[in-house]
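Hi everyone,

Forwarding the result from last night's run.
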Amino acid sequence: MTAPERYPWRLQLPIYTSGFFNGNVYFLTGILMPLWALIVVGEDQAFLIGLIVASRQILPVLLAIHGGALMDRLGARRVMLAFGAIGIVTSAAFPFFPFLAAIIALQALSGLAESLCWVGSQTLVGTALKGHSTYTGRLSFALRLGGFLGPWLCGLAWHHYGPAIGFFSIAGWVTLGWIAGWLVPVREERRSLQAGPFHFNEILPRWSDYVATFRMISIASVALVVAVTFMRQTGSGMQLSFYPVWLNQLGVTAADIGFMVGCSHILSASTSLSVGAATRWIAARWLLVMTIAISIVTIAITPMLGADFITLPGVGKIYFILFGVICIRGLAQGFNMPLMMSIGMQAVAPHEQGKIVALRITVNRLTSAIIPLIMGAIAQVFGIEVSFYVIGSVGVIGLVLISIWMIRSPSFRDEN
């Protein structure tokens, strides 16, 4: 890879800070929402738990591409601020509507807001920082640091003060992301916008945007990103749905789950900064596939690990096996996130950065909606343990097929 252009920290820092907050709302709700579903519908309703978790992805699947196209036309910062405000309100509303229909509606709205704010952070890296792996690595580093602090703080808030304070802590987290987006220099964003006056019909979905976005899949690198995103989400879908449910049944508290997940993000941060160096030694696409495989296997074997722990004075319980394995997953995730971003961003033109990010997010969220539903259905019939093994096997087999395609594809043959 070539050396990146240099940009002032006045531009870089707000973008990374927005990623610190915006990119981790998904993980905060991934811990608290399954626990809230347990309270509302009961632990014997595995399919309804899966439905509640999956409902967060309904609107992102339908409208993320539209949101990305809006960012290409109107600017990522402007769209981020609008949907960030929606995210603040909906995150705080959950404790006041503890019934199934309302939870699903709030999940859908807050899921869309969270998704488009994260799309905005990534789009700014693509437009303002040209999508180089050095800068996507730094964004991923910020993401992972937030992934340590956010789940831990929200888990503590839930554990010590109850569900209401847990959800208010998420709303506060979203508020800080909104402030970071507001601090992004407006002048820098305007340079990346398509010329032309604003019209009200700009905010309406356009079929042409969806056609243009999905047409990008004809580019081999984009097709690779889309395919591995499907597989990567088999692991993330398990972690953000039935992973906390399984650990809760073993007696692990929300605070302990948040701490373990948070520590895995710290390790992800450490590997995110080494992505640029690593791709000098191994092709980015193969590093991507290998690290995704590791991240799937380490979450799929969770039911085999038990809940053995040691008690440290002043610290409490340390579930050392669960902790070690989730940290290995974190190391792998630190590589594959910036790789997916940079491979996709560098394959398309500057004025299409919002669309390429939204395409990956759409695939991401579609899989995130499907996995909890399938896991819930399998768990309802065969038990939660079997659902981990089935979903993990699907992810690994999919990566094997993708690897065969890369070896045989003319588009990658010269690089092979």
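The radius of gyration is 20 Å.

Cheers,
N.
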